[in-house]
Automatic annotation (TrEMBL):
Polar residues bias spans: 82-92
Protein name from the UniProt record: Uncharacterized protein
Organism (species): Mytilinidion resinicola
Region entry Disordered, spans: 1-30, 51-92
Length: 156
């Protein structure tokens, strides 16, 4: 049976050390955009593990029609790993996934801005708590900007 990931019959085998010769393949240094995209992908993947998307039937205002209409297939909410490179940041998101995530992030940002405004007006709250809330809001704004950039990149 062939070894998988250096493990054969439950026994790990040490990997050969790589040499630092001129014939070695140069290491890919990720750009800041790739690093942020990787971080966002990890955060979104963590969120997706904790969230189940369920489409609920909407109550119809009209009586049921005798002729059933063909249902549209549900939009795919997915992340796809690129097959053409070995880069861990080569991830694409389906447009519905980006739309859904962006809508949720904008809703969260709206709530955070309202809370931030209330905290700023309150005199009982420590300054460090206010500053932390503003830092979190700014981080969320950066994530939203990256999602918008990804939507624009895929639309181009």
């Amino acid at each position: 049976m062939p070894a998988v990931n250096g493990v054969s019959n439950g026994v790990a085998r040490p990997k050969k050390p790589s040499t630092n010769g001129a014939s070695a393949v140069p290491q890919h240094i990720p750009s800041p955009y790739e690093v942020m995209a990787s971080r966002i992908a990890n955060r979104v993947a963590e969120m997706a593990e904790n969230i189940t998307f369920v489409e609920r039937e909407r109550p119809s205002q009209q009586p049921a029609s005798p002729a059933p209409k063909a249902k549209k297939p549900p939009r795919k909410l997915e992340m796809r790993l690129g097959q053409n490179t070995s880069s861990p940041t080569n991830i694409t998101f389906s447009a519905p996934f980006l739309d859904n995530t962006l809508a949720k992030m904008l809703s969260l940002q709206d709530r955070m801005l309202k809370v931030g405004q209330e905290l700023a007006a309150s005199e009982d709250v420590e300054e460090s708590v206010k500053q932390e809330q503003f830092r979190q809001s700014a981080e969320l704004s950066r994530i939203i900007a990256l999602i918008c950039a990804e939507k624009a990149r895929q639309g181009a």
